[in-house]
Amino acid sequence: MSGMSGATGVSGATGRPGVTGPAVAVIGGGIAGLAAAFFLRDSGAAVTVLEGSPRLGGKLAVTEVAGIPVDAGAEALLARRPEGTDLIAAVGLAGELVRPGTTSAGIWTRGAIRPLPRRQVMGVPADLDELARSGILSPEGTARARADLELPVTPRDGDVPVAEHVGARFGRELVERLVDPLLGGVYAGRSDRLSFEATLGGLAAASRRHRSLSQAAASLLPPPASEQERPAPPVFTTLAAGLGTLPAAVAAASGATVRTGATVRELGRTAEGWHLVVGSAHAPERLAADAVILALPARPASRLLAGVPGAAAAAAALSEIEYASIAIVTLAYPDAAFPSPPTGSGYLVPAVDGRAVKAVTLSTVKWPHLRSAGAGMHLVRCSVGRVGEEALLQRDDAELAALAAADFAAASGVTGRPADVRVTRWGGALPQYDVGHLDRVARIRAAVAGLPGLAVCGAAYDGVGIPACIATAREAAARVLAHLGSVRALGPA
Asked: Is the pLDDT higher at 375 or at 115?
């Protein structure tokens, strides 16, 4: 690659001595960007990851509470999707994977913590008798939910909100007390806005083959435990030292040059590839690259693409994706604070019940290795914030911690003040897959396809979980490799 006048290649300080191949810039050092760099490790390219913040990892981070290292961001990944565990194995951490001690969760509603039905898909029940036994719904709500088995097919013309379609089948109470809490836990969103096709794609497809939505949900689940020859593997897993340790391991294994505090402020095309402007307006650094991967949230990606010829459609669609902010409040309590030893992995709280906390994880119960690390202490992780709750998150750390502790005490009966507290704020953390999301993503990818040497990845596209982000990273790396291969095949002009 011959750099533009006054620019240096992004690989000038490569972590891979002797690499003189094409230069690839990965903008964003969250797990998606780092995974993309990792997937390019054997390509011969000189890869540089540019992260604007002072640290790598995005929403993966470990902090200490009561002397115990614990995740302050994402704390588990889906074990049934291979992308996450495969990457963990590839960077040498397979031996650090641990299983949950329990997956038994609840819903705190109607005055009690009630068991979360096991046979459900994001709150859509596959077993209406199990739902009735849980007590989550009132008798009237349970009766309305059973109507799903008798109702004719609910027509669906294009994408619709989750609440609209699920509510038509089961009634509003089930949406409010079961579906909304589960969606809120994943997306920090609301079911009357979130896309049925984007957030429940498997169920949306199955619903076209079944009159009953409950039967559609059942078709997606393994047989009940009593009918299985062997126990089902756990749904979730994590790393013993915390998922927040994964980014550093991926960065090291990638062999890429990694720069933090390197905000990319401008992106443009050149006759030979791409140019980037990094740093402040007072001291800009100009870099050149043969290919670029945007591993950023939607809004900053939109701003970078806004001035790129041919990228207007992608920039416009990216700007339409909203984000929700959340806070994680981790509380540490001595054993004596509990009226009885805590059980279960935690519980969700419906927004309709008016509580500040939307979800609680009993971390030292769910993950026994944390219990071993902190003798005599239990860690409780409280999630605060849904889309539209910005005013709640404007409260200071002490007030948020007090709200979380009060909610947990009301649910659990715990007494006394927590021995330690940590509040971690994640501004603009979770993209909202609102109605029309799949169309927006299609428009983004169609526009990007017309820009040689550009690819996108991250949580804004096909799923907010770690495996989904890694899958988009692999696709982005493959797109860049295909471009570089075609450039090499053409040879010099």
From this structure: 115
Which of 221-230, 261-270, 289-298 comes out lowest in average pLDDT? 221-230
> Tokens at residue 17, please?
């001595």
- Positive or negative, the CA dihedral 355, 178, 78, 325 is negative
Nearest to 117, CA basis, from 141, 77, 107, 200? 107
- CATH 3.50.50.60 in the chain, residue ranges: 8-55+247-321+435-490
pLDDT above 60 (res 481):
yes
78 CB neighbour count, 10 Å cutoff: 18
User: Strand order in 77-78's β-sheet?
Assistant: 77-78, 236-239, 97-98
pLDDT per residue as tens digits for the range 72-93:
999 999 999 999 999 999 999 9
Range 114-227: architecture per CATH = Orthogonal Bundle (1.10)
As beta bridge partners, residue 346 has 105, 361
In the CATH scheme, what is the code of domain 323-431? Answer: 3.90.660.20
Integer Cα distance of 246 and 57 in angstroms: 8
8-55+247-321+435-490: CATH topology:
FAD/NAD(P)-binding domain (3.50.50)
Q: What is the pLDDT of residues 399-414, one digit of tens each?
A: 999 999 999 999 999 9
- Looking at residue 234, what is its pLDDT? 80
Question: Facing residues of 237 across strands?
Answer: 77
Strand 291-294, strand 23-27: pairing: parallel
Q: In which band, very low, low, confident or very high, does the pLDDT at 4 lie, cut at 50, 70 and 90?
A: very low
CA-to-CA dists, residue 174 to 109, 339, 349, angstroms: 12, 31, 13
